[in-house]
Amino acid sequence: xxxxxxxxxxxxxxxxxxxxxxxxxxxxxxxxxxxxxxxxxxxxxxxxxxxxxxxxxxxxxxxxxxxxxxxxxxxxxxxxxxxxxxxxxxxxxxxxxxxxxxxxxxxxxxxxxxxxxxxxxxxxxxxxxxxxxxxxxxxxxxxxxxxxxxxxxxxxxxxxxxxxxxxxxxxxxxxxxxxxxxxxxxxxxxxxxxxxxxxxxxxxxxxxxxxxxxxxxxxxxxxxxxxxxxxxxxxxxxxxxxxxxxxxxxxxxxxxxxxxxxxxxxxxxxxxxxxxxxxxxxxxxxxxxxxxxxxxxxxxxxxxxxxxxxxxxxxxxxxxxxxxxxxxxxxxxxxxxxxx
Length: 340
Known about the structure:
The chain is α/β, with parallel strands linked by helices. It has a single domain (about 1-335), classed as FAD/NAD(P)-binding domain (3-Layer(bba) Sandwich). The chain is about 30% helix and about 25% strand. The protein has helices at about 10-20, 45-55, 90-100, 195-205, 250-265, 270-280, 280-295, 300-305, 305-320, 320-325, 330-335, and strands at about 1-5, 25-30, 45, 65, 70-75, 80-85, 85-90, 105, 125, 145-150, 160-165, 170-175, 180-190, 210-220, 230, 235. A hairpin with a 5-residue loop joins β11 and β12. The mean pLDDT is about 90.
């Protein structure tokens, strides 16, 4: 087939790499090649990433920056250590560039429905994450604004991961070590109080800011991001809601979604059904997060939604290595029940 991929982030670059051997594929990315930036904190599960990239003969170990031992979880000023199960940071930027190397990847081109003819292609893949430029807008859209700094320290304030959830479960602050004395420091909050926490941390610990990134994260589940298609356009990854709402993690879900699309590249209806099945639990997580953010997770609603809360816990508990951390109900309950 003749295929266009719009957006060369995690899902788009993976699909350009994997589909180009069998199809005529052209990729488009609005960022310029020399200015291309892989937005997010670059954290993921080592075991899951190794599995995914081993399938396409890429040694993921070559891209790992930092192997975590513990997450320092700050709950109302009390630090609780959560053991890591392969949680790492990696060179997301370089990996995405390497996936497109030698292929028909076109950077610095902003695609819109007005300047792009979908009729020239058998299939157009929208991998534009939040923008989903070629698909209808999301109706039930929950956006969390985020700001992140890449900071270089003389003496890093933490030697491991540090996370501070906001009491409303509307976002959290994060410190993710990279290579050497460099870390990603960021925060996101539905109520837009993230800058207060971020500035407080930066004022306290200093460091040289190497770059600043600002972008929102959409926590709406795939169920809320339908339709996944429009004519011969099909969405993939974050464009159709593959972000785990509780922690805002989208790298592995987007790669899993891309694998489903590759598997069903000649059967898009089956792809849609597989996505709905694979990410069904995200709807339960999304429901709980919305209640908490709207301050409606009172004791009555907590019991009423205990099924969704249990599904969220069970999903993470059964897949600890996939999430890269130990999962305990008491940690989840304390985050959700704060300020009741």
